Amino acid sequence: MNTSQHPRALLAALYRAAVQGAAPFPRTRDAVGAWFDARSMLSAHAPVYVIALGKAAPAMMAGALDALDQRGRTVHGGLVVAAHEPKRDEVGGDLPARIRLMVGDHPVPGPASLDAADALDDLAHSIDDGSIVLVLLSGGTTSLCAAPIATLSQEVGDADRAQSHLATLAETLLESGLAIHEMNAIRRRVLRWGAGRLAVSLVQHGAEHVPVFAISDVIGDDPAVIGSGPCTADPLDDATFLALLDAHDMRSRVERVMGTVLGLEGASDPPRVPSTDHAAFARVGYTLVARNADAVQALAHEARALGIAQVVVQQMPLEGDAAQLGDQLARLALQTAPEAHGDTLLVCGGEPVVNLRETADRAMSRNEDESLEVPWSDEPLRGGRMQVLALSAALALEEAAACGDSRSWKISVLAAGTDGRDGPTDAAGAIVDAAVPALARRAGRVPEDDLSTGRSWFPLDAAEALLRPGPTGTNVMDVVALYIRA
């Protein structure tokens, strides 16, 4: 393989390298093995349990089991809560009979998430005194095993009704354009296992050691944010928490019952969380297994191995509005092109946001304007942050080409989520260039309208620009690569 191949094939290969750079199995295996090796004085008779939660849960469980098997450790019980039914090779064959597999709901929690949370409760009650409980966390944990705190269930009557309010809160936050650390700061207060509550429960039921191994899907890799911090104390005091809610106008956005439980109605305080000095946290250890930087560096390493002359890794993470970032990155590539000596690749990673509420409002406004022809008026919103970024970049490159800038035809852009699924779609993202908007128009799309009304998937699909790798088994946010041909 070399850089003479088609840009799409090259960028697809670089995406695969990025995903492999955050591969859960080997990284979890090595981290778990190192933890046990460093604690050789631990009793060989201490019962071991393994809990794996999130999109990477099957592969992380397989890695942990391999490490334990190499050291002659028997697993007394465990639980995997995944985003999909894993294939046998994702879990290294058949799971031991003592390990239960469940599939939760994502990105909005539902009945399956409540069942998974109940199974987690059952496991906590079953562990033996003096146990070692490995907790393997990855992106998606917040939703996949989401269940309401008792206060919320009591407020509405039962857990099933409370679960529907959790789902509504999740949808409200997803539509709001909040960053993941802000969303999880709110959600963990009302989640049964958020804000350190899982660690407290495990220790109360007999866990002596709770080593946590995490694959980070958040900028900054904050343990309190990854999976809504099931084994980490909430760092926000009540005043800071309420200030966060008010900063994003949550009083007017959330349902009244949720506002009451969150402490926004004035009649109650925010939900209580375990204090940062709770004794349970002294038994928790935290190891970061993989992060976005690992995927970015793996992509860059592969690009150099394939002979790309210049590979520049942007150190600042991608944050903010996805459409704006797509436009800015395309213009950065255009500025870089004249100075490029040989093929050049600009690489960055992070997690932009899309404000679905504003997008939906714009779509409704256009639908109500009778002077506009809106052939897509009955189409659902469909796309994700990487598809928005990719389409925005393609439009910026097309605009430059229309102005006679020949540099635009030398640029191709990869924008994709490492989990293989960008938003509620079948694609991880897209690989685009200046020709994509015209190809979409040829198929009857208006890409500018699609971008502004939350339908980025449609023009990218029409232009055959979508990247569809399927679920990758990991989740370390997003990667973007801008390839400038010499």
TrEMBL record:
<dbReference type="InterPro" id="IPR037035">
    <property type="entry name" value="GK-like_C_sf"/>
</dbReference>
<dbReference type="GO" id="GO:0008887">
    <property type="term" value="F:glycerate kinase activity"/>
</dbReference>
<dbReference type="GO" id="GO:0005737">
    <property type="term" value="C:cytoplasm"/>
</dbReference>
<dbReference type="Pfam" id="PF05161">
    <property type="entry name" value="MOFRL"/>
</dbReference>
<feature type="domain" description="MOFRL-associated">
    <location>
        <begin position="11"/>
        <end position="258"/>
    </location>
</feature>
<protein>
    <submittedName>
        <fullName>DUF4147 domain-containing protein</fullName>
    </submittedName>
</protein>
<dbReference type="InterPro" id="IPR025286">
    <property type="entry name" value="MOFRL_assoc_dom"/>
</dbReference>
<feature type="domain" description="MOFRL">
    <location>
        <begin position="346"/>
        <end position="478"/>
    </location>
</feature>
<dbReference type="InterPro" id="IPR039760">
    <property type="entry name" value="MOFRL_protein"/>
</dbReference>
<dbReference type="InterPro" id="IPR007835">
    <property type="entry name" value="MOFRL"/>
</dbReference>
<dbReference type="Pfam" id="PF13660">
    <property type="entry name" value="DUF4147"/>
</dbReference>
<dbReference type="InterPro" id="IPR038614">
    <property type="entry name" value="GK_N_sf"/>
</dbReference>
